[in-house]
Amino acid sequence: MDFAIEDSPEQREFRAEVRSWLAHNLPAGIEHSVDPRDMNREQYELRRELGRRLGSKGWLYPSMPTAYGGGDLAVEKTVILHDEIARVGLALPPYYDAGGRMAAPTILVWGTEEHKKRFLPPICRGEVRTWQLLTEPSAGSDLAGIKTTAIRDGDAYVVNGQKVFVGSSHGADYSWSIVVTDPKGERHKNLSWLMIPMNLPGISVVPMDLLATGGESGSGSGVKNSVFFDDVRVPAEYLVGGENNGWRVATTHLEAEHGGMGRLADRRVIYEFIELCRQRHDGAAIADDPAARAELVELYIEAEITRLFALRNHWLSHTSQPRSYEGAQYSLRRKLSGLDISEKMLRIAGPRVLTKDERWGPLKGMVEYFQRDAITSLHPGATTDIQRVIISRRIGVGRAEREKAGALR
Q1: Among 23-37, 216-230, 280-294, the least confident range
Q2: Per-residue pLDDT for 3 more than 60?
Q3: For residues 89, 94, 98 and 102, what is the CA-based torsion angle, rounded to 10 degrees?
Q4: Which of 182, 184, 195, 292 has its CA at 20 to 30 Å from residue 320's CA atom?
Q5: Residue 369 has what pLDDT?
């Protein structure tokens, strides 16, 4: 019995269109960078060029409204677009644009029409890329504990402070940042969001020497930075969502970050690993061993469950369905399954899978990077413990009133 889900005629036609477009529009020389730290400037610029080409069709941020540079594609076409981008070893966007992925849906919900017209088209067309600035030396999981200030002075906010674990290599055009706009105000009611141009005087970016952290399909998030603000004057009209209303605005940003929109990037390394285990060398394959075969089945099931959680969340968010704990549930699942899958790979194939020997060479070191990513990914975007707290609050454990999911439309 075949349980495979087949494309409809319309979906097949769109998939063929995307595949043909990619064949003609992938910049010559673009490569899949396994470890984002290894992405040189040339490869980064090729990815930015691809982003602009995708943006011109509305495919860089395909779910965003066409009025602001998106494609306003139906859910199934968005999924197909992600599938086909993953097939060539890339993701949407093809470069690190975490700020854009979280800022764009947040501005869509909380921004004025002027904000939407100012900030969304450049993001959706790939003309700018944006970092998100949340974590500080003394504030991570407790986002309300940030210290970076933005004090109104005439027609500008003067920003001072430090953000850590920021961005990637090769800089950014804007930073989407949460700041304290009322230092004497009540906790949770003294925060605001600023879109900060990164070319303003007083901004310093200093790389941090860390174990590489993850990025979809080598999107370039392995390098992290500290960003320092020293009397940086940001135009007042760059404040989004209202002064001291930042905690409410953050509910949308964090819902997007925690998986409420469904991250459709494909962990292709998992499926390629399974395929290599089925290939024969000297008449034998790893998959011939019953114990290894059983673990390969479990590994595949783990990856598929996580993918289906992402598809569910993507559908819920982009069809305006009621949501509750689903974002945190997906994030928790993704973090824990990544670690479990990485351990299974080592049990199945042994430590040689981390190398580039004859058998594992086609993976180009992706399993070794996946191992590091599985460890470090337990922490960014809220730890596993925080995800459990969010889930419990959303289902009403320990509270008289259930916490609501952040608005995404």
Answers
A1: 216-230
A2: no
A3: -100
A4: 195
A5: 84
The yes-or-no verdict on residue 28 having pLDDT over 90 is: yes
Mean pLDDT rounded to a whole number for the chain: 89
Kind plus residue range of the DSSP H or E element containing 370: helix 366-376
Q: Does the pLDDT at position 390 exceed 70?
A: yes
- For the stretch 132-149, pLDDT in tens is 999 999 888 888 999 999
Token pair listed for 205: 């970016």
The CATH class for the domain spanning 130-245 reads: mainly beta
Which is it for the CA torsion 345, 349, 355, 359, positive or negative?
Answer: negative
Pairing of strands 191-197, 239-240: antiparallel
Q: Average of pLDDT values for 216-223?
A: 50
Segment 371-387 shows an average pLDDT of 86
CA dist 152 and 109 (Å) reads: 24
The residues with which 234 forms a beta bridge, in sequence order, are 157
Q: Which CATH class is domain 258-394?
A: mainly alpha
Which amino acid is it at 385?
A: D
Q: Computed from CA positions of residues 137, 141, 145, 149, in that sequence, does the dihedral angle turn out positive or negative?
A: positive
How far apart (Å, rounded) are the C-alpha atoms in residues 376 and 339? 10
User: Which pairs with CB-CB distance under 8 Å and at least 24 residues apart come from 230-233?
Assistant: 230/160, 230/202, 230/203, 230/204, 231/158, 231/159, 231/160, 231/202, 232/158, 232/159, 232/160, 232/196, 232/200, 232/201, 232/202, 232/203, 233/153, 233/156, 233/157, 233/158, 233/159, 233/200, 233/201, 233/202
Q: Is 266 helix (H, G, I), strand (E, B) or coil?
A: coil
Radius of gyration of the chain (CA): 22
Fold that domain 9-124 belongs to in CATH: Butyryl-Coa Dehydrogenase, subunit A; domain 1 (1.10.540)
Check residue 212 and give its pLDDT.
53
Task: Give the pLDDT confidence of 339-355 residue by residue, as tens digits.
Answer: 999 999 999 988 888 88
C-alpha 120/C-alpha 249 separation (Å) is 16
Q: What are the structural domain ranges in the chain?
A: 9-124, 130-245, 258-394
Catalytic residues: 257
